[in-house]
Structure formats: C-alpha cells, structure tokens
Amino acid sequence: MGPSSCHLLILIPLLQLIIPGSTQCSLDSVMDKKIKDILNHLEYSPSPVSKKLLCTSVKSQGRLASCPAGMSVTGCACGYGCGSWDVQGGTTCHCQCSVMDWTTARCCYLA
C-alpha cells in the first residue's frame, strides 16, 4: 500500500467529521417547526353548549346491580374479589362468579 493510499484512508474519516449532520435531521426539525406554527395558528372555539358527565354508584346484594333510568353502566365491581363481570343491556352489571355477596354498578349520563 502506497503513501497516497494511507493518506486517503486517514482523510475519509476526517471528512466525515467535517460534514454536517444528515439532511434527514434538518428536514425533521424544519417539519416540526412548520407543524408547530400551523397548530399555534389554529383557532379553538369551544362549543357554546357544554355537557357534564354525572355519575353515581349503585350497590346491590347478589350478582346484579342496575342503573337508574336514563343512565348507562361505565364499570362494575364484584364482591369476594371476583373480577369476572359483564354488562347486560347497557344498564345492568352481572358478576359471573358462582358465589357473590354484592355487586356495584358505576352509572353515568350526560347532563
């Protein structure tokens, strides 16, 4: 290997250090800036009618707990550490374990 080949092998890594970062990184930063600018200029106009989510819990003895009229089940809890339950008809919690002392339904509606 001649001296010119050795100089070339030394020169290549040095050139890589001098060349600025990849164009992909600079393109990403430009796109991030443009997206942030666009999002900052969007106007947010909330709906004049605001609704609230109102909830209550209904606890019953046994395997079933039902929500009052107009409310829907959003979650259930079962006694004896039972984690198996399903919602029946959108308004009733049904605990699926064989022996159950209580069932609670979390019931909500939009007001």
Automatic annotation (TrEMBL):
Gene3D superfamilies: Resistin head domain. It is found in: Secreted. Residues 1-25 form the signal peptide. One of its GO terms (molecular function) is hormone activity. The keyword Nucleotide-binding does not apply. PANTHER family: RESISTIN, RESISTIN-LIKE BETA. This is Resistin like beta. It comes from Papio anubis (Olive baboon).
